[in-house]
Design brief:
Elements: H1 4-7, H2 15-21, H3 24-31, H4 38-47, E1 50-53, E2 67-69, E3 72-74, E4 78-80, H5 86-89, H6 93-104, E5 109-111, H7 118-122, E6 129-133, H8 139-151, E7 154-160, H9 170-175, H10 185-192, H11 195-204, H12 227-235, H13 241-251, E8 255-260, H14 263-269, E9 275-278, H15 292-303, E10 309-311, H16 318-326, E11 331-334, H17 336-345, H18 347-367, H19 373-377, E12 380-383
Parallel strand pairs: 4-11, 5-6, 6-7, 7-8, 8-9, 9-10, 10-11
Antiparallel strand pairs: 1-12, 2-3
Helix pairs in contact: 2-17, 6-18, 16-18, 17-18
The protein binds flavin mononucleotide.
């Protein structure tokens, strides 16, 4: 029997199977961008503009991918980005991803709007989880969320800054995506032709907001509210520099600001947070935003060589991760690939995605004789003409 890697040597090889096993509304939720999907497509195009010029005759190396961030040494410089409603896309996704991260010593970030709660997932993460906060407008909820995440053993906090408004997500409207999924014929039919997803959902429970639901179910200061409407209303706005400083004072641990694109924001942020996380939300928020990779070299120059920079949006392979690292990132996160693995192969698929990314990255390092990530970052890069943006004003 052929091994997984023979059957699915790249993440993209799992895509067709993943899409077949997910109901249409769930796959649209995962893969859609926003607007005309221009940011989504540009994320890919920009990655294809970067080349690495190898130097040879340096002997043989056994590469180490170990990477230190804050006070933890990870086994590889990549991890799982925060993705909301993860169990809508694949039942039980949060637990599977948490286990994958512990097994392989790479980070996993749990979203505020994941289906499993901080309490459930904290238990799985051996005290080294990352919790992502969509800053609630109600500060009492915010403070309670931070307390719960700390008590559940999460060590690192990500504050997401790039949703001052919800985006239009036209494809989600057309696919009828809602939380919880609508109980109608269309949804039923889409789910019925995906038996693994449906049986998994029956076992795991109808997707809900595991962490947030207790604030809308009537037990928290008043009346029950619509779950999705409530979560949306809490998370659409509000984060500003003062709010961020308040979060920092409460959290008292490593703090990452996610969703930055502009060098001015980066320069302000480095005085407050411990790492900046460049992202265009996987092309899901502002369709006319550039790829964060296009902003990275300049931001790296501005913030200096030492300040930790994390990046995501469109990194689907070890090749892509290499490109992020050589342009100045310390860590590359990825959202959709791990879910593709889960949907294609179940829990072992998340692990398989990890193995592919690590193997691809390691193979590149061997080929260019880079013994460690520092040496990889010092490679000569060539950038295609469509990479650079020109300031207009
Ligand atoms: C389905 C989906 C849900 C997401 N939910 C969140 C979220 O809850 N919080 C957050 O900060 N980012 C969220 N993101 C953005 C991811 O953290 C990450 O920035 C993005 O997926 C990176 O792009 P990639 O999927 O191309 O790797 C989501 C992305 C996707 C695809």
């Amino acid at each position: 029997m052929s091994s997984l890697v023979d059957k699915f040597p790249r993440v993209s090889d799992m895509l067709k199977l993943a899409k077949r096993r997910m109901p249409y509304f769930a796959s649209e939720y995962l893969f859609a961008g926003t607007g005309y999907d221009e940011a989504l497509e540009n994320n890919r195009k920009v990655l294809n503009q970067i080349f690495l010029t190898p130097k040879y005759l340096k002997g043989t190396v056994t590469p180490s991918l170990k990477t230190k961030l804050f006070d933890h040494e990870y086994d590889a410089p990549f991890g799982m980005a925060p993705v909301g409603m993860t169990s809508l896309m694949w039942p039980g996704a949060e637990v599977a991803l948490a286990k994958m991260s512990v097994k392989n010593n790479v980070p996993f970030a749990l979203s505020t709007v994941a289906c499993a709660s901080v309490e459930e997932i904290g238990k799985e993460l051996n005290g080294n989880g990352w919790f992502q906060l969509y800053p609630p407008e109600d500060k009492a909820i915010r403070d309670d969320l931070l307390k719960r995440a700390k008590n559940a053993g999460f060590k690192t906090l990500i504050v997401t800054a790039d949703i001052p408004a919800s985006s239009r997500r036209e494809r989600l409207r057309m696919a009828g995506v809602s939380v919880p999924p609508k109980n109608n014929l269309r949804t039923f039919f889409q789910a019925a032709i995906c038996p693994s997803w449906s049986i998994g959902t029956l076992k795991n429970g109808i997707p809900a907001f595991g962490t947030m639901d207790q604030y809308s179910n009537g037990n928290w200061h008043g009346n029950a509210k619509s779950k999705a409407g409530f979560a949306g209303s809490q998370m659409q706005r509000y984060v500003d520099w003062d709010y961020l400083k308040e979060v920092k004072d409460i959290w008292k641990g490593p703090l990452i600001l996610k969703g930055l694109m502009h060098e001015d924001d980066a320069m302000k942020a480095i005085n407050i947070v411990d790492a900046i996380y460049l992202s265009n939300h996987g092309g899901r928020q502002l369709d006319i935003a550039p790829s964060p990779l296009q902003m990275l070299p300049n931001i790296r120059k501005k913030v200096g060589t030492k300040f930790p920079i994390i990046i995501d949006s469109g990194f689907y392979s070890g090749q892509d991760i290499t490109k992020g690292l050589i342009l100045g990132a310390d860590f590359v996160m990825t959202g959709r690939p791990f879910i593709i693995g889960l949907a294609a192969l179940g829990a072992k698929g998340a692990n398989h995605v990890h193995d592919i990314l690590k193997d691809e990255l390691s193979n590149i390092m061997e080929q260019i004789c880079a013994a460690n990530i520092e040496e990889l970052k010092n490679q000569k890069v060539m950038i295609g003409k469509d990479f650079h943006l020109t300031d207009f004003n």
